[in-house]
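[step 3/7] fold_predict: job queued, chain A
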Amino acid sequence: MKFEALHIWIISPEPWGVNFLSKHHYAFELAKMGNFITFIETEHTENLLKVAPEHKNIRLLGWKSGKGQRYLPNFISRILQRRESKKIQRLTKHKPDLIWSFDNSRLYQLNALEPGAKCIHHVVDLNQQFQLKQASKTSDLGVCTTRFIQELMIPYQPNTIVMHHGCQLRQVAAWQPHHRNSTVMYLGNLMIPLLDRELVLQAIEDHPEVEFRFVGSFGADNLNNRVPKDSVKFIKQLMEFSNVVLTGAVSQDHLDRELSKADLFIIAYKTEEAEQVANPHKLMELLSTGRAILSNELDSFKDQTDLISMAPNGEEWLVQLSHLLRRIPEINSPEVAHNRQKFALNHTYAKQIARIEKALNDA
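[step 4/7] structure written:
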């Protein structure tokens, strides 16, 4: 199978919106390649079909999927999900050639959805373990982002490959020496409970001379259905600092300009969540800018310590932050920046899709 002019279903628990995750980037790249994408948003409360504003080949289907099927015998849930698939086909007026699922909580009987279609079960988060066994067993290929996820999938789908998140090509200006105060940037969803909020607050307090710029969602949107009270408290705490800027979610068109403002990117997840955050969604995008990155230890990048500064715990993370802030020109030198970008450019979404295509055909 060649990924050209195919009708592809991408099944996603996160709807389309201003915030893009892997499944949104894959859909966009596949559409650019001439495929016809139906992006099925499984968390919808009604069935609604529309064209995505970003590309005419992407149709967004809000789908109210059946609930409680995990309690049923597999042969019954297969029948029910096949019926759902037929309803989707009546709406979209085509059968899928390829079903690419990022959601194993709904429509997880993959090879029952359309007999003859190729099926990919793609898991990007360790906590995405709802019907992992059945989605893996009914797929032709498993794809995941860490060895920890692969260990869960391999017993049910031996053809499971590990690969990094893709890199979205961006036009970010090269870092230039300057005399203004340094800018430390966090890119991502501020609502996620994995973020070490106390560590972040301590870093801001320790460095009043530094601008801390938070680029990403901090309210209800396509990534956050609700805003927990502890998240509201955290955002209020951030707003109390005069050296903090909260941009909110930034559209893909304006993200390049925002990323160009960074001198240093930070990733600050809880140490006890090491397996869950072994391969962060945004890291490849950060590397593509060429700028320095400080992170907690990342299992999937343990061989890239020349590209990413990593700390084993919060205390050491704060020490490294202070150290890096004193060496901004050095850590953003053209040579190191080139090496970061070279690594990222080997993992563009186009290249990842080509690798997945080959793995699917070899399976």
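[step 5/7] annotate
The longest strand covers residues 43-51.
DSSP finds 13 helices and 14 strands in the chain.
exit 0
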